[in-house]
Amino acid sequence: MSGSSPVRQLRLVVTADDYDAALRFYRDVLGMPEQAAFSSPDGRVAILEAGVATLELADAGHADYVDEVEVGRRVAGHIRVAFEVDDAAEATARLAAAGAEVIAPPTRTPWDSLNSRLEGPAHLQLTLFEELG
């Protein structure tokens, strides 16, 4: 498609049972800057910056393959959030220390990145990836 996209922004909206813990984890530990925050009579929302956003669509076969490479078995649901980081090993250790469950440590992939898999707050399965090439 030439020209600009009619979609100007991708915003993934996640409902967290423990809003404060999720906000601390993603904003303060992972390091996603807070772009805006709003409250309603019954709740709160924070919009965190995540750099460039893309929507990665995969069929079941490819999702199986990625899980096999990163974890060794099928573990992800239909949504997994991937964050590019400068140092996958350091970021994995930092998030684990903040309470994320490490499903698989950083592993070199066939597409030349170092990927780890974690379970983060708000029931999000996370891939941290560091481009090596």
TrEMBL record:
Entry-linked InterPro entries: Glyas_Bleomycin-R_OHBP_Dase, Glyas_Fos-R_dOase_dom, VOC_core
Gene3D superfamilies attached to this UniProt entry: 2,3-Dihydroxybiphenyl 1,2-Dioxygenase, domain 1
Domain (VOC): residue spans on this chain: 8-131
Protein's recorded name: VOC domain-containing protein
Organism of derivation: Phytohabitans rumicis
